[in-house]
Amino acid sequence: MSLAACARNFVTKRRQVKFISQKTEIEIGKKAKEQIVKEYGIYKDLDWQIYLDQVGQRVAKASDRPELQYDFTIVDSDLLNAFAVPGGFVFVTRGILSEIKDEAELAIVLGHEITHIAAWHGLEMLQKAGLLGTLTALGAIGGAALGAGEAAIALAQAANIYENLYLLGYGRANELQADQYGIVYAARAGYDPEAALTFFQRLDKIEQEETAGQHISPYWQDHPPTQERLKRAAKWIAQVEQLQKQPSLTYNRDKYLAMAARLPHGESAERGVIAGRKYTNVPFGVTVEVPEGWKMDTSRAQSLVSFSGPVPEVRGLLQRFPLPHETGVQEFAKQVARKWGVQEAATRDVDYPAGHGLLWQYGGDYQRFRTLLLVRGNAGYALMCQMNTDVYLQYLVDCEKIMRSLQIQ
Fold it and tell me: What is the DSSP string of 344-409?
């Protein structure tokens, strides 16, 4: 018996197969938020959180999925980005809030992310990752008890897909659809849709500057070219304004700029920098490179740098652990095992360009891990590659290249 059901997409109004219930969608989103907050950190300013929630809820109520409970979070990063995960969870960075110049532009950005949720774009990622069938087979849908046994494992695996949304995006077609309906929702909420043009014009300038400097943020890699978005936005704004009986003119520029003035700017030098496919951290004397087709990101709070492969199932990170006293690599490995919850791993001594260390290999039917552990001075380093088992052999060489590129002075 098939557990999948047909449902009408909130945004497109077309009927499509929906494999999981809204309850399961929300549970996945909650778990994803836990992981995202742990990895990236949140910006703790109560006034900002209240303000963001007020604007977000106003736009959400004007969306095509207003009955869902939406949750808005500020990620503590200078990286310019915003993203959403299923179940109503929206994230914006300090970086993008600093580039926004009024409340109407904020409404456009939030409307874009709300569209991803309303149109089930996140569920498409689960389908591509082969997890919708797993969730269905385990009964983690409909009225099944969530969080128990194998269903909990499936939910955790599903939530893990969204941890790397900084680097993945939802694909060109879905991003353009989110632009279109983000404009519609902001206008319905009473904001001037023309704000989309001013925001995209500013993004276009930033994109050109970053392209010239050969430092492309994940935001540009995830989204269609800004020039294309500008042209399409102008058409969509004209359509919205034709349908409006009373034009939307809300901007609240002064209030927004007063809030933006509270935001801290700049990242610590200890965060390091990315230039092309190379990460450099001068204070710690660390460099590492990724192969062609891979992406890097420094926004995670608990790692120096994270990276993702050409497919979502392949990713990794480099983490640094300060050591309070002289520690050997064997003892350091035990500490990492406790922190990461590694129960058992095949371990061997290795010599890499970064020096002598230990190599872990562990995992199961679903995922495989390969981790290089090193101790240098008063710090330990763990460089981990994580791959779905079915693509492990395909990307093993790439993982080895990353480990051999690591240098610690």
Answer: --EEEEEEETTEEEEEEEEE-SSEEEEEEEEEETTEEEEEEEEEEGGGHHHHHHHHHHHHHH-EE-
Nearest alpha-carbon partner for 193 in 182, 183, 178, 181: 183
d(CA 197, CA 333): 52
What's the CA gap between 117 and 178, in Å, rounded? Answer: 9
> What does the CA dihedral 7, 10, 13, 18 come to, rounded to 10 degrees?
-30
SS3 1: coil
State the Cα angle at 107 between 76 and 105, rounded to 5°. 85
Tell me what pLDDT residue 2 has: 43
- Encoded amino acid at 86, one letter: P
For residue range 147-181, what is the model confidence (pLDDT) as tens digits? 445 455 556 666 666 666 555 678 889 999 999 99
Q: Is-contact 307 274, C-beta < 8 A?
A: no
For residue 17, pLDDT over 90 is answered with no
In three-state form (DSSP H/G/I as H, E/B as E, the rest C), the secondary structure along 94-119 is HHHHHHCCCHHHHHHHHHHHHHHHHC
Closest CA to 194 of 241, 226, 229, 228: 241
What CA–CA distances, in Å, run from 378 to 283, 326, 329? 13, 7, 12
Which strand ranges, in their side-by-side order, compose the sheet holding 273-275? 273-275, 278-281, 286-289, 407-408
Tokens 């969204």 -> residue = 162
- Give the length of the chain: 409
Say if residues 10 and 143 touch (Cβ distance below 8 Å): no
Is the pTM for the entire model greater than 0.85? no
3-class DSSP assignment, residue 8: strand
Distance of CA 23 to the CA centre of its chain: 22
Predicted local distance difference test score (pLDDT) of residue 151: 53
Q: Compute CA distances 220 → 17, 163, 211, 216, 292, whole Å.
A: 31, 18, 10, 7, 17
